[in-house]
Specification:
One of its GO terms (biological process) is tRNA modification. By secondary structure, the protein is α/β, with parallel strands linked by helices. It contains 12 helices and 11 strands.
Length: 331
């Protein structure tokens, strides 16, 4: 009997993760975001193995941000590896602005490029290679910004990119697994020097903060943070359903805005009351409220002493009888 060599465990894990992520995706084109790093290269290899069995065609999209010397050569090398895996390789060169800082600007340009490629090929899904370690870093950075429960949610395994499915199959796998998968398949990843630049907060979290937490609190910190993100996301989804069910009965359209019942808000727990306030402002005026702004609006319900209108981003809130009325700024 012919002996077949056993599949490397890391390769098996990456393939299973992709197979699971694609299980509910319609047949069609799949776009894989490929930087050339170990995470995205392992994702490309696993997708190249799994997607054809599901009747899917493969496109890799490498975004050249033009922020480093030699970035064009790096993009070309990544594209050649994608072609070696049987993928239709695309390179998208983008101009990175400065809005929100260099990391945010690069991310905005990158996702816009991925969406552009996905539209051109009528993609069934876009796959990106965020790992469990990325999730842990995201949660810690969110906690440092003090953004509350939202910061604990991290990244979703499945979300939308301009209406198209955006999938993160590797959120339960660590970087050690993706590197091992590349090594087992003879793939040569590129190491981005920016991933070792301590001027970036994410790099400091990766290189300094997480190792200290592991040393002082024991191993498994990244896994624990990822589990916390998953649980927080489940809680957020439950709250969102409660808000949707509640809001239909307590919200009315008002002249130049919208109004909410004071007794109904008062009858709800603070956590739900605050979410309703934020939801109303976000859905009606397209603005996000800080916690301090949310609490000021809530005082119109729980601690009203005749205080006047509260200026908020894009709107103002005031109490009129038994209702909180939100009107557009300047009305």
């Amino acid at each position: 009997m012919e002996h077949r060599p056993s599949l490397d465990p890391a390769v098996a894990q990456t393939r299973l993760a992709v197979r699971t992520a694609l299980a509910d995706v319609r047949p069609g084109a799949v776009v894989v975001a490929l930087s050339g790093g170990a995470d995205s290269l392992a994702l490309a290899a696993a997708t190249a193995f799994e997607a054809p069995k599901l009747g899917m065609t493969l496109i890799s999209a490498t975004v050249d941000h033009g922020l480093q010397s030699g970035s064009a050569e790096v993009a070309e090398a990544a594209a050649r590896q994608a072609e070696g895996l049987g993928m239709d390789a695309r390179i998208e060169r983008v101009d990175v602005g400065s809005a929100g800082g260099p990391e945010a600007a690069a991310r905005t340009a990158r996702y816009a490029a991925l969406a552009r490629v996905a539209r051109e090929v009528d993609a069934a899904a876009v796959l990106v290679a965020h790992t469990l370690d990325d999730q842990a870093e995201t949660v810690l950075l969110g906690l440092a910004r003090g953004s509350g429960a939202a910061s604990l949610q991290g990244m979703a395994a499945a979300s939308l990119l301009e209406g198209m499915p955006l999938l993160r199959p590797f959120l339960a796998l660590g970087r050690a697994t993706t590197r091992a998968a590349c090594a087992a398949q003879g793939l040569e990843p590129w190491d981005d020097p920016q991933n070792a630049d301590p001027s970036y907060a994410r790099v400091r979290v990766r290189e300094r903060v997480l190792p200290v937490l592991e040393a002082e609190l024991g191993p498994g910190i990244a896994e624990a943070l990822a589990r916390t993100a998953e649980q927080a996301r489940e809680d957020a989804a439950a709250f969102a359903d409660m808000v949707d069910e509640t809001i239909e009965d307590i919200v009315e359209h008002a002249e130049a805005g919208i109004s909410v019942s004071v007794p109904a808000l008062a009858a709800n727990p603070a956590a739900l009351r605050h979410r309703i306030i934020r939801h109303v402002v976000a859905s009606e005026f397209g603005q996000s409220l800080s916690r301090a702004q949310t609490l000021e609006v809530a005082r119109l319900v729980t601690d009203w002493a005749g205080q006047g209108p509260i200026d908020l981003p894009g709107c103002a809130a005031r109490r009129v009888g038994a209702r909180i009325v939100f009107t557009a700024a300047g009305e």
